[in-house]
Amino acid sequence: MNRVQNIIEHAEQHCKEHGARLTNKRKHVLSGLLASEIALSAYELTEYCKTEFDEAIPAMSVYRILEFLEEEHLVHKLKLANKYVACAHITCDHDHGVQQFLICNECQRVKEISIDKSTIKKLQRNVEDAGFHLLSPQLEMNCLCERCMVSAA
Amino acid sequence: MNRVQNIIEHAEQHCKEHGARLTNKRKHVLSGLLASEIALSAYELTEYCKTEFDEAIPAMSVYRILEFLEEEHLVHKLKLANKYVACAHITCDHDHGVQQFLICNECQRVKEISIDKSTIKKLQRNVEDAGFHLLSPQLEMNCLCERCMVSAA
DNA sequence: ATTGATATGTTATATCATAACATTTCTTGC
DNA sequence: GCAAGAAATGTTATGATATAACATATCAAT
Questions:
Q1: Of B72, B93, B114, which residue constitutes the final position of a domain?
Q2: What average pLDDT does range A7-15 have in this prediction?
Q3: Which one of A72, A115, B104, B114 is CB 3.0 to 4.6 Å from B145, fit for a cystine?
Q4: Residue numbers of the domain that contains B103
Q5: Which residue is closest to B130 within chain A, CA to CA?
Q6: Above 90 in pLDDT, residue B98?
Q7: Are strands B140-144 and B100-104 parallel, antiparallel or unpaired?
């Protein structure tokens, strides 16, 4: 079984555990994100399903499916890019805390990392000192990935 | 002279110093942002100019004006909100380093803060360790402002 | 006053996203 | 198996943000 299928199985199991249904269309959208190295838009995902599975899922449905997948913590929405990525930890059974997203401005490649707790704490304190409350330390950062750094040089 | 006019004067001086022109329309757009407590979209700014100055600046022009104001470091674009804010440091003559933006998810109020250098350094190291390069530590963070925290409680 | 540069206007269109309502598919109790 | 309700998906329309391409107007310097 290949990597994507394996993750899909995990995801399906995860959904079943609380009575959610990972339908075929939802699987297809998720597998589009899993197969992609870069973040994708809802419209790009309809394209993917069309070419890969010959299945015409309208954009409206893709948005709903993405919403479902987000609620299941299988997908993250990147507000900075208005695009979506699969969660990098679907097959981890342990809780994996809050993630940060490094988004390559050139190629949309995304890396999901964990910034150490103390740094996050300090950040949070800075924010509180300013009288604001950080809703979620799930930061998104404008970056360049390794490949694009090399090709830019 | 009121606060907004005072800042506009500073901005004009700043532009003049390197031969850039702060035209009336540019002033109007900038003053819209200066007068606002919250981040505004380009379309909201055309509205503002229409009602406040009875001047119909088409959205296309507002985008160009915002681009100009960004290049002059008079305005920041918030990618997280797809909106714009005036720089909080137009009247400071000293260099004020890299800023972070706290965006209230409820009311779009924005606070521009400076996170201490050591925290930024640590963040940057985390990113580099992941093989990415932080393009700019100008973070944007989803927050709740004081007022909205109170009214939510 | 002319000319070239800069700024702004106009029109069309791309892209991301949601609202409202209709239809299909699934599930569950009978 | 089937009826009824719930869940998922389809359809249509539209809103919001943004950019491209080209036309016109305004400014600045000679």
A1: B93
A2: 96
A3: B104
A4: 97-153
A5: A113
A6: no
A7: parallel
d(CA B143, CA A127): 9
Which positions in chain B touch A130 (Cβ < 8 Å)? Answer: 102, 111, 113
3-state SS of B81-137 is: CCEEEECCCCCCCCCCCCCEEEEECCCCEEEEECCCHHHHHHHHHHHHHCCCEECCC
Interface of A with B (CB under 8 A): 79-80, 100, 102, 104-105, 111, 113, 115-116, 118-119, 122-123, 126-127, 130-136, 138-146, 149
Q: Is the pLDDT of residue B19 over 80?
A: yes
Could you tell me if A145 and A78 lie in one domain? no
| Minimal CA separation from B13 to chain A, in Å | 30
HSE of B65 in the Cβ direction (CA atoms, 13 Å)?
26
Q: For chain A, what percent of residues have pLDDT higher than 70?
A: 97
- Residues making up chain B, counted from first to last: 153
Handedness of CA A5, A107, A48, A140 (dihedral sign): positive
Q: What is the CATH number of the domain that holds B82?
A: 1.10.10.10
Same domain assignment for residues A62 and A83: yes
Inform me whether the pLDDT recorded for B95 exceeds 70. no
Mutate to test the interface with A, among B82, B114, B141 (most CBs of A within 10 A): B141
Q: Indicate if A24 and A86 belong to the same structural domain.
A: yes
End position of a domain, from candidates B69, B93, B117: B93
Establish whether the CB of A58 is closer than 7 Å to any nucleic acid atom in strand D: yes
What is the number of domains present in chain B? 2
Are A80 and A101 part of one and the same domain? no
Report whether pLDDT(A94) > 90.
no
Chain B: give the shortest CA distance to residue A71, in Å. Answer: 18
Whether residue B19 sits in one domain with residue B64: yes
Report how far residue B103's alpha carbon sits from residue A134's, in angstroms, rounded to the nearest whole number: 9
Tell me the CATH number at A113: 3.30.1490.190
> Rounded mean pLDDT of chain B?
94
**Same domain (yes/no): B8, B71:** yes
